[in-house]
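Subject: Interface between my chains keeps coming out wrong

I've been trying for a while to get a sensible model of this assembly. When I model each chain on its own everything looks fine, but I need the whole thing in one frame so I can look at the contacts. Pasting all components below, labels as-is. Any help appreciated, I'm running out of ideas.
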Amino acid sequence: GENVEQHPSTLSVQEGDSAVIKCTYSDSASNYFPWYKQELGKGPQLIIDIRSNVGEKKDQRIAVTLNKTAKHFSLHITETQPEDSAVYFCAASIEGSGGSNYKLTFGKGTLLTVNP
Amino acid sequence: DSGVTQTPKHLITATGQRVTLRCSPRSGDLSVYWYQQSLDQGLQFLIQYYNGEERAKGNILERFSAQQFPDLHSELNLSSLELGDSALYFCASSARGPSSNYGYTFGSGTRLTVV
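Reply #2:
Try treating it as a single job with all components included. I did that and got this:
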């Protein structure tokens, strides 16, 4: 089955700096890669996703890049703010299989702390 | 409010007992997924239902079972509980059909403590 590795497990940055979280996946058939943000006491929330036909996607201060050859994808957060502090999860799945399951395999998470 | 409702929010029970966790998916979503989150294992996939039918199973213990009802709400039953079953249990739903993927919407979880 799919295996997703995520690094680093913790990341501390100063407000205004950039943060980068990296993930690798094992199943070359995976073609959907979402990122989730989990704040304390809440469920994970989808913040951005990318499909394998796209190499990069940006939404305001967050961006995701995908390298299918190397089987890795990354989350970039620019101009970090204290409210960005949370646990971030990457995930991978295969979509479009016509009735098969779409379970997401998650990385183990990165605790991002943005210091004011 | 994500639109996915999980009850109860907290549950404390003794070893050997049985509990039922409930999930109401977001309106219109046909797929329901159950995940277990613990500190050392992250988010572990348990089981998926699509429109009432089981679609995929993860590392779900035989002591655990689930079902999705005609109104699309789902229940996760955990029996013969052990201390190691203490975790956060999340339900997620998606609008997935047979050929598309829309990402999950998670509920706020049920925190299960087995004492």
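Reply #3:
Confirming on my end. The mean pLDDT of chain B is 90.
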